[in-house]
Amino acid sequence: MPSRRVGAARLALFAVFAAACGAPAPAPAPAPRVKPPNVVVFLVDDMGTQETSVPFQAKASELNRVYRTPAMERLAAQGVKFPQAYASAVCSPTRVSLLTGMNVARHGVTNWTLRQNVSPDNAHPTLLPPDWRVNGMTVPSRPHARAVAATPLPALLRDAGYRTIHVGKAHFGAIGTPGADPTTLGFDVNVAGHAAGAPGSYLGTRNYSSTGRKDDAVWDVPGLGKYHGTDVNLTEALTREAIAELERAARDGAPFFLHLSHYAIHSPWEDDARFRAKYDEIGMTPFQATLASMIEGMDHSLGDVLDALDRLDLAQDTVVLFLSDNGSPSQCPRNLPLRGHKLTPYEGGVRVPMLARWPGVAAAGGVVAQPVVVEDVFATVLDVAGVDWNGRVVQQVDGVSFAPALRGEGAAAGASARPLVWHYPHHYSGQPPWSAIRVGDHKLVHHHADGRLELFDVVADVGEKNDLSRREPARVRALADQLGALLRERGAVMPTKKDGSGSVPFADEVAAVAGGAVAK
Ligand code: CA
């Protein structure tokens, strides 16, 4: 089967070559069905744009100079870089967007998930959390209370003949709900994925468990018993399992979708012993050296996967997409030049590192300048795979394929004017609730608790040092109108006021009240 497909592709290539050389063209024949490309999505947890030696802005930052990510450098050289890639500010919202193509305001899984019907929100002085989809995502055939039902990306790919493989952190649905198990969501294979969004431990010697330290087995990484008691780091164990799946896919010859979703570099921060010493030697603090070792361990995994694709003769037929699910958390103290961290509305919370390699299609060493957002990955992967999903999904998809940009066809019409929307109606870990919108170069942030609106030019002022809201009231009003309208249209839920006066007003309602104040 695979050899026949390869043979047909070679014949087609020969026909092109022969025509180019002026040789007589062979008689027209039905176009052979060309095997669609394989797709690897390499998803890192909690990695900020600066936690790499690949600069995602014009100049290398201080952090770019201290971290070592040679495999990312290789991917950037062979593929394209996205300096303006976005995700949600926390794990589950991003992961549900990736699998459904829905914006967070529409899918309603607005915070991280774990236990059924239990919201992790902290108490807020004046607000209560909204009735959000605390149980995560599911599929239409397995409806579940407070979970969004959608047709997932891997199910569409599986229907199109792909073998669909999940390895690593899932975090799609709460414990005991259908979406907790990636095989419910269209994956043929699930290695080590379940409801929890962090591992008990990265250490094989601790069986990837926190039991005995935090006395809570929900964080125990499932399914890796063969590594228990060994010194194999979790990142390495997941890599070995992923490569075994690549080897199987190479033998079988069917196209594959590998969702290699590392638990790294999320807490608990534990040394990847293979890489720690060099960071001590350059004088990093113990915490920084630990984090740096985990970053390099993650990058080593990427290198091993790229090497395996080469060795198995799959690289030329495989699209590799690298990204993180949110910005760097506040425990990682430096994030310059970006402002803020994970959970915050600032670029440090929502801007993520992203790279793509598509051999023979995307220009090596290129840059895709247009802003992209994680729900676009859904549409892009299906575009790359040649799967027409129109009419075959129950959800309304917000994401737009950026495959044309990979193909060098330029940005889609209106790509730069397209509104990007974030929605975090929660108070958690010191971060009060907010919504935000970016249109063109400008981003408006709406703080729910006090109604404050901030405006930034995130291109001219990536560090968001200058709040332009008082200087540009007309732009504030226009963006507030757009944000309010989009959140209402997408069915977004807002926090409720404890004083019994109802939900927090949307940004346009705040701007209407503020009117004169912001116009000063
Ligand atoms: Ca995360």
Description:
This protein is α/β, with parallel strands linked by helices and 520 residues long. It has 2 domains: 38-414, Alkaline Phosphatase, subunit A; 433-519, Arylsulfatase, C-terminal domain (2-Layer Sandwich). It is built from 15 helices and 19 strands. The strands form 5 sheets. An 8-stranded mixed sheet has the order 8-7-9-1-10-12-2-13, with helices on both faces. A 4-stranded antiparallel sheet has the order 15-16-17-18, with helices on one face. Helix 13 (473-489) packs antiparallel against helix 14. Residues 45-46, 91, 266, 325-326 line the site of calcium ion (CA).
Question: What keywords describe this structure?
Answer:
disordered C terminus; Alkaline Phosphatase, subunit A; single chain; four-stranded antiparallel sheet; globular; binds calcium ion; Arylsulfatase, C-terminal domain; alpha/beta; 2 domains; eight-stranded mixed sheet; 29% helix; 14% strand; 520 residues
> How many distinct helices?
15
Question: Overall mean pLDDT score?
Answer: 91
Number of strands: 19
Enumerate the distinct ligands. Answer: calcium ion
What is the helix fraction of residues, given as a range?
25-40%
CATH-defined superfamily of the largest domain: Alkaline Phosphatase, subunit A
CATH class membership of the largest domain = Alpha Beta
Q: What is the CA–CA distance across the termini?
A: 71 Å
Gyration radius (Cα, Å) is: 23 Å
Quickly describe the structure.
This protein has 520 residues and is of the alpha/beta class.
